[in-house]
Every structure is written in structure tokens, then in C-alpha cells.
Amino acid sequence: MSDQSEQSVDESEQSTYLDWNNSINILDSAFEKGLFVLVIGPKGTGKTSLVREYAAQKSKKLESINFSLRTRESHLIGTKSLSEGSIGFDEGVLVKSMKEGSMLYLDELNAAEADVLLRLDEALDDRRQIVLKESDGQVIKADDSWFAVATINPLTHVGTKELPPQLLSRFPVRIRLDYPPEDVEYKIIKKHVKNLHETEILQGIKLANTLRQASAVEELYYSPSMRETIAYAKLLEGGSSAKEAAKIVFGNVYSQWGNVEFQKVNDIITSMFGS
After folding, report:
1. Stretches in the chain below the pLDDT threshold 70
2. Pairing state of beta strands 86-91 and 78-83?
3. pTM
4. Is CB count within 10 Å lower at the N or C end of the chain?
């Protein structure tokens, strides 16, 4: 076996991503056909991990931007700069990825402002080009290998807005990524934690799902992510008791919404883990 093949095997063995719903194959089909992809799901379901895993598998350079109210056109496009008396142009992440043909990750796209989305829409249409009014009308044409993947949170999440229909249509391949079944979440945790406490970990996953379901029907303000079930398992690995780890990871965060919310969750923990 060549050194290159051995390296490929090692990287695969080290991956902590578990493709439990065939998302990698969907991304691959879209990439081969030049179609952009939208990944939809609540926080902490592995959307970013999926994108990073696919970029690594394809050996594609990954350019990314996380959208918020503070994201400006300049973050996407770039800005003029002055160096030693000469005016230049510092390229933004969108322009850079188009020219290089890299993979562009647009994280939490539905948190962006309308003017930012409008500029992005120009680049994502069938022409795959953008006119840089910031750089004397220069036209940037995307490399043929350019690939864009966006993620959005459900509209129930704070700060999210409905995407304009024309922009939504730029991402004709859609992947829904929700919290996995309990047995699959356990397999994901196994990729992150060496010394497993199976019974206690399954208890923690069951607690997380109870809280997620309560949040979905607006009985609680917060829904724990898979990051938190992994953190819970790591605390167990470090010697914490199951109830202590559950309070630290799952219970204490609810205190920010007051004693009623905090006590409600701690009562659930006590009922599941004992007094």
C-alpha cells in the first residue's frame, strides 16, 4: 500500500463524523451535478460537522462565514485597501472562494440582513458571477469547481428570518438534519469518548431527548444539542456521577430563565437519576 493510501485510511479512521442519514452521498450527488445545497435543522445536530467532513473527504479547501446581524457586504465581497501609496482590494470570502473554486460554507444563512442576501444572490444564479462595484466594476466569474453549501436554523430560533424565495431556489438540493435516534446518538458519542459508561450515557441521551421534546412544544426555553450529550459523556469519563454530570451539563443552563424553569428541569433530572 502506498503512503498516500495509508494516509487516507488513517484520516478516515480518525473521523468523528457518523453519516447516519446518507447526507454525504446527497452532497456528493449535488457536487457532481453543480447544484448548491441547503442543510436545514436545529442547532447542535451536526450541520457544520457534516460540511467539514465532506470538504475533508473531497480534499476541498473550505471557506466559511457565519452570518449574523453584524455581517456586512464587505465580509462577503471585500474592501479597498491602501498599501505604500497604492490602492488594492482585499477579497472577501465569497470572491475568494469563487476565484479559487473552493467550497463555500454559508453558516446560519437565514440570520443575514437583506442587503447581504441580495449581494449573495447575484453570485449564486446560473451565471455564477458577480460584478465588483467596490473594484471598478470588475467581473468575477466562479471557477467550474466552485461549490456552495448553506445551513439554516428553523424559524423558531431567535434571530432567524424567512429566506427570500429567489435565494431559496438557488439551493435546490435540501437536506433535513434533525437529532438522530437514541441508538445513533450513542454511536456518535462513542466516536468522541474512549471509556464508555453505556447505561449512564443512554440515560443522558434520554434526558436530552426529553428536554428537546419539551422545547419543541414550548414547555421549555432551551433544547440541548449533541455537543451537550458528548460533554455529559466526557464528564462521566472524568469521574463525575451521572446525576452530577446531568445537572452540570443539562440542568444549570436553565437558571438563566429563572427559578421556575431551573426547578422544572432539575425535577426531571431527579426523577430520572434519583434523589
Report:
1. 1-14
2. antiparallel
3. 0.86
4. C
